[in-house]
Amino acid sequence: MISAERVIPAEPERVFEFLSDLRNHWRLETAFVRLQDVDGSGGTIRLRGPFGLSREVRTRVLEAEPARRVAGRADLSGGTVGLVAWELLPAEGGTNVRLSASVPEASLLDRLILALGGRRWLGRLFSRALANLEAAL
Question: Long-range contacts of range 68-73, CB-CB < 8 Å, 24 or more positions apart?
């Protein structure tokens, strides 16, 4: 499990509204190089990853519970699957937002990348995404 957490000074409904529009995710991280075919249920992104690798990722929203949670699946070439969730809890001063991911299926290459620093890279990416979410709201 990889995660980051931050209190965002906005109401859970506003945070959910922003996150439920996948086109807004483009604004959260500079590692997203290209976004295409995005609609309400998913899309394809080009992600610039650790060690200079670039990957195409197909995303799908699996769950959207207003003002509480947005969860989805990311399928990478090579068979790797990531499960990503944004969990929203009311907090003093706004909303506690937790961004987490697990990798239930990983190719040999992706297991190696995760072991050699990919987990730390994703943790930093998640922390930046939360900071950028705060700035966007």
Answer: 68/12, 68/16, 70/16, 70/19, 70/20, 72/42
